[in-house]
Fold:
Amino acid sequence: MSTTRKHGAAVGARWLGLLAGCLLGSSALATGDQAALGNEADGRNWAAGGRTFSEQRFSPLDAINTRTIDRLGLAWSLDFPDIWNVSTIPLAVDGVIYVAAGFTVLHAVDARSGKLLWKYDPKVDPRKMRMGWGSRGLSYWNGKIYAGVQDGRLIAVDAKTGQPLWEAMTTEPGDNRYITGAPRVFNGKVIIGHGGADYGQVRGYVTTYDAETGKQLWRWWVVPGNPAEGFENEAMEMAARTWNGEWWKSGGGGTVWHAMTYDPEFNRVYLGTGNGSPWNQKLRSPGGGDNLFLCSVVALDADTGEYVWHYQTNPGETWDYNSAMDMVLADLTLDGKPRKVLMHAPKNGFFYVIDRENGKLISAETIAKVTWAERIDLETGRPVEVPGARYPGGEALIWPGPAGAHNWQPMAYSPDTGLVYIPTREMAGYYDDRGITKENWSPMGLMPVGVKLFFDDIPRNAATTFLQAWNPVTQKQAWRLDTPGGTNGGVLSTRGSLVFQGRSDGKLAAVDARTGEILWSQDMGVGTQASPITFEVDGVQYVSILAGWGGSPMLMGSLSAQSGWVGRQYPRRLLTYKLDAKAPLPVSPPPTAKVEVVAAPEFKVDPAQAERGKLTYATRCMLCHGAAAVAGGFAPDLRASRVPLDPAAFATIVRDGALTARGMPPFAELSAAQLEELQHYLRERANHEPSLFETAAMLAHFGWVFIKMQLMKYGLMG
Structure:
């Protein structure tokens, strides 16, 4: 079938589906899921991460608006005392809220009362717990809830009872793949990707299954494999021409760990693909090359998985600038003509408007501080890189860093205002590959990303965050609202001319969508990076959000710890609001100004053991317990714990897995000597007081690296 005929058939089916949805009555999702997920006008349910197929995260509900917002109050709250992380985007379908907390423990909650209806724990394999922190979202289809489990399973459970219906293992035994992203459902199919490119020897793919049975339908690989073994399709053969060396031995990367968008008008799935494995292109693909399809938006035929088009945001990427951020579909009027576009703000600091019919770039401008490129050439679609950005001298200080100007916390688009609302971060990245060569590097070694590990604490002033409204037509900022801390939550926009966002200071805030003025805020008792949703039950509009400090903020040491939510004493909860509600917020401890380090003068630190322990900590502990042993989230600050002072207790927890049920994976491979070295490192960190000289030296070093980049940019230094 030609592209034109396919398009016409898809559009016709869409309008028939919308008509059927309008005629079906009160339960929009009971019989017409495809129509309901394509219906932008019906805001009763929130059945997917972006609400509808467009991923706009816009609700047509307007009972809660700029005039009534001061009446918004807490309707109820539900704490999850046995769950350590709550960063999921909830779902709300026919009066029931669904959340995945911790390692994809599913909860169904009555939206009117906050009563827990059922709970299902898929029991994650502890071997995969150490690679991530849980689930980002769920999907609903035909009475089922779909979720990815960190150990690689895709599961379907009955939405009414929580009973498991089927599961499919989407990864391979013994690999480094895992799942934290949400599946997407369309046309009776469910698609899922995976993460793992940062752990070495991972080649990314997405897999599509029958939504009713779990039978695998098709798989699409993101990067090419070993040419000697043949290519899966013409797209992989084309991609292989853009790689050099023996890239397949390190996997290549390109994981689709978060963003996927279904387009019913063209019957396509758009993939937001990940970074290279390793990050460092000099190791991954010596001699350069674009390295398709890393850091790209890739369009596939939704029925067959066949390649349609791609746009690569970072050809030959070498900074962890993945494009796994949300992709929003909209109709915009550009130069007086209607265009069907895809809007995308990946890590690299640019905002892209792409023609989703053919994948051609329309415009691209910076939304934050960017020093790796001067601009995007609109004729070629390629970035004009700054000399020195690829750290040819071995090191570079670049904006943005690996955390990105925009990460996975989703943005929202309002067709009423024509603005995109983006949670934004400005934070540099330091890249250093001095001494790392193809000969001495291994994809399964201690530095699988191909640059030196960063052992130091991340200062609290290393990043700033803000919520901004971006005009995709003019490619200019409409307003900016500075936000607290180094990370904040995703956003929701509504027809009530409001933008909701959960923040790191423990507040849920509503701002005027046209001006950015804060109109309302309320304490949640803890900070969050989760995204709010809104829905309607019995004609009443509700707003719900998960609050709890965990997930990616834990990694960033003092930058995250400044928010004051470090420790298990802070709540993880589901909060739901409606007009004129006055439920009291359960009491929770105030944020902690400073972690009290345990004094142990009797413990004599051996510097050599501490140095070896530093490497063990960075490769096994830092993801949860924070940079330089400065905890930034729910995982305990080990400098403030007496457990590392007791060798037996330390071994029981770290090596033997005594706290697996609380999210602490076992590290059975660690020897007694390594555990002792960890103890010495943790004590060294507990005793450490950074001097003014250290801070000045670090700032001077980073400053000199940046100055060198500027000199190289203007041809004043080779």
